[in-house]
Amino acid sequence: MIDLIQTRRDLHQIPELALNETETHDYLLQVIAQLPQTWLTVRTIKVLPTAILVHITGSQPTQTLGYRADMDALPVDETTELPFSSTHAGISHACGHDLHMTVALGILAHFATHQPKDNLIFFFQPAEESHSGGKIAYDADALPVIGTSMNSMVCMTAPTYPLAPSPRASVPSLRGPAKSRSTSPVAPDMRRFRRPPTTWWSRLPRS
Ligand SMILES: [Zn+2]
C-alpha cells in the first residue's frame, strides 16, 4: 500500500524543471516497482527520457483509457517553510504537479491490485510548463491509441467540492480519436475558474 501523503511530500521536495525530471522519474519508477506487476508493463520513451508509460492489461478489454499526470515544476522559490519544502533552490512544485503525480500513482496502485476490465495507460509526462513534452511524445508516435483520456487539476482558489468531470479538455497531446475529459475539483457554479483570464503562472518566464 502506498502512503500517498508521504509520496506527495517526497515529490514536493524534489521539484525539477521541464525535461530535467530525472530524480522524479527515478522516484516514480521505484514506487511503481513496489506494486504487483501481474498486469503492468512499464516503458520509457527514447526521445523523452524522463517520461514513463505504464500499461495495465484489462481482463476483457474493449478499449484503452488513458490517464496523464504532468511531472515538471516551476522556476519559483518556495517560501512556505513547510517541513517538506523544496530542496532544490529556485524551483518548486507551485503548480501542483506533485499532487497530479500522486493522484495518478494512487489510481495506478488501485488497479495494480484490482484488474480493470478495460486496458489502462498511465502517462507520466515531463515538460508540461514548457518545452511541450506531450507534443514530443505525440510526434514520436510514443503514445498509444486510446479511447478516453483523463487527468486531474488542483485549484487552490476553488472551495472544496467533490471531484467532478469538467469539459475543459486539457490533454490534447494523447493520440486520438480521444474524447478528452479532465476531472477537476470545480463545481458547476465555478465556471469562471475553468478559463482563468490571466493566471499568475502565465506571467512566469518560459525557458
Ligand atoms: Zn502546471
Question: What's the quick description here?
Answer:
This protein has 207 residues and is α/β, with parallel strands linked by helices. The protein has 4 helices and 8 strands.
Architecture overview:
- This protein has a single domain, classed as 3-Layer(aba) Sandwich (Aminopeptidase), CATH 3.40.630.10.
- It has helices at 4-13, 22-33, 97-113, 133-139, and strands at 40-45, 48-56, 64-70, 119-125, 148-150, 164-166, 179-180, 182-184.
- The radius of gyration is 17 Å and the shape is globular.
- Helix content is 22%, strand content 19%.
- The chain is built from four helices and eight strands.
- Bound molecules: zinc ion (ZN).
- Residues 70, 95, 97, 128-129 line the site of zinc ion.
- Zinc ion binds at residues 70, 95, 97, 128-129.
What is the CATH domain class? Answer: Alpha Beta
**Going across the major beta sheet, what is the strand order?**
1-2-4-3-5-7
Low-confidence stretches: 167-207
Strand content: 15-25%
The CATH homologous superfamily is called: Zn peptidases
Oligomer: single chain
The count of β-strands is 8
Number of helices: 4
Based on CA atoms alone, the radius of gyration comes out at 17 Å
SSE order in H/E notation?
HHEEEHEHEEEE
CATH fold field value: Aminopeptidase
| Main sheet properties | 6 strands, mixed
How does CATH name the architecture? 3-Layer(aba) Sandwich
- The N- to C-terminal Cα distance equals 38 Å
Instruction: Give the overall form.
Output: globular
